[in-house]
Amino acid sequence: MVMDVSLLFPLVLMVAVVYTLSQMVRIVPQGEEWVVERLGKYHTTLLPGLHLLIPIVDIVGYKIVTKELIQQTREQEVITKDNAVVIISAVVFYRVTDPGKASYSISNFESAVGNMTTTTLRAVIGGMTLNESLSQRDQIKAQVAEKIRDSLSGWGLTLGNLEVQDIRPSQNLQEAMERQAAADREREAAILIADGEKKAAIAKAEGLKESVILEAQGRLEAAKLEAQAKVELADGDRKAMMIVTQGFTGGEAAPHYLLAQRYIDSVKNLSDSDNSKVVFMPADWQQSLAGAVGSLGYLGTALGEKK
Asked: What's the pTM value of the predicted model, to 2 decimals?
């Protein structure tokens, strides 16, 4: 069945009108901005809302998302200033503030942001030591953000924030650090043990020194007490002799009295002891006994004369 030409023309015209209207009337959604080119040249940027374009003359060249974008860099190995290897990655938050620049100043701004951040991270970490790179995360973030901000501005982008997502030593370096930490702990333990033994030896020596001093002081005090006892004993004998002398008419009876009394007390103490004993008598014991008896006799004579 052949379609009537009179019906085909209105149909084609209707399709052309619909297509023209679709190319002329454009609705830009919220969170996007469209770049319009007129005859192949940048013309304007369409903000969210309803817009009218000239069909065929005006075309939408780029549809740019103006919401905040997130670019995560891949993990990379970086060599520090002291030749240590660390693994680092970061996350960049940014948004497109000039769709025209973002469309025409660089071919792919998302890839450019990732590569710029990666390169800057390598440069910043390369100027730090291992300890600095592991402990100064805020300084790394601030330096990288300062260096890439100008580049992003030239591409029509605004840097929102940059976070260092992860920074850690490489596997080989981490194992070496663990071995070093273990060795340090063993060394500190050995030092503590040696220090404890040293303090114990010092305390023992000081205790021995104090015990020797105390023992010497004890002997000194005992000697002093013994000497004092002898002095008091001699003083007692002297006073006894004075009293005995006063009781007799002659002064010669007092020594004989005290000598006889000491002799009798000694024999008595020796006989009262429960221990088995051997008594050594002097070779002239007869004369000694006679002398003691003579002293007693002299004492009796003296007492008789006093009466």
From this structure: 0.53
